[in-house]
Design brief:
The protein is of the alpha+beta class. About 45% of the residues lie in helices and about 20% in strands. The protein has four helices and six strands; from the N terminus they run ααβββαββαβ. The protein has helices at about 1-55, 65-70, 115-125, 145-155; strands at about 85-90, 95-100, 105-115, 130-135, 135-140, 160-170. A hairpin with a 5-residue loop joins β2 and β3 (about 105-115). α1 packs parallel to α3 (about 115-125) and α3 (about 115-125) runs antiparallel to α4. The longest helix is centred in the N-terminal third of the chain and has 52 residues, at about 1-55. The N and C termini lie far apart (about 75 Å). Residues about 25-30 have low confidence and may be disordered.
């Protein structure tokens, strides 16, 4: 009986150690993906703003879409899948859609299928004029913006993904 208990205890400890290591790797990959997405969004916003604003007298983002941004080389290479129209995010099944604002004086990048546990970190990483998370609009200049982002992301719910839209106005 002592032999069985010793074998069981040893195997249990090994299995527990493997689970802890796998959990740590998962956490590192999630944080890495959020950092990757943050860098991509920042680079894309800077490139798009510079391209549509630079030395043009009629400053308008009208006509902006994924294909236009890809053809003008305004998106990071890691977001391309080769079809000339799709921008992929760093998470499984995540993608990004670019569009002009209704006034044409800015643009929106909408990230779909952002894991809920990366949502708040990613949403807080940008200096957008307005942020929408799962349909909740948040003004980043509001004193309660951080709490609003946390509430809209709500990583503790059963929803496993979020949709985040960043509005960049000129």
């Amino acid at each position: 009986m002592d032999l069985i208990y010793a074998i069981f205890s040893r195997n249990f400890i090994v299995a527990l150690a493997i689970m802890v290591v796998m959990g740590a790797v998962y956490e590192l990959l999630q944080k890495s993906s959020a950092q990757t997405a943050s860098g991509w969004e920042s680079e894309m916003a800077t490139n798009i703003d510079g391209f549509f604003q630079a030395s043009l007298t009629a400053r308008s983002f009208s006509g902006l879409n994924n294909s236009v941004a890809i053809k003008a080389n305004l998106v990071p290479k890691g977001m391309l899948n080769g079809d000339g129209a799709t921008l992929k995010g760093p998470w499984a099944n995540s993608y990004v859609t670019l569009s002009p604002t209704s006034s044409g004086m800015g643009f929106i990048s909408t990230w779909v299928d952002v894991p809920s546990d990366a949502c708040a970190t990613f949403a807080r990483s940008q200096s957008a004029n307005m942020i929408s998370i799962n349909g909740t609009t948040i003004d980043p200049t509001n004193n309660a913006a951080a709490a609003g982002i946390a509430m809209a992301c709500d990583a503790g719910t059963s929803s496993s993904t979020a949709t985040i839209a960043f509005e960049h106005d000129s």
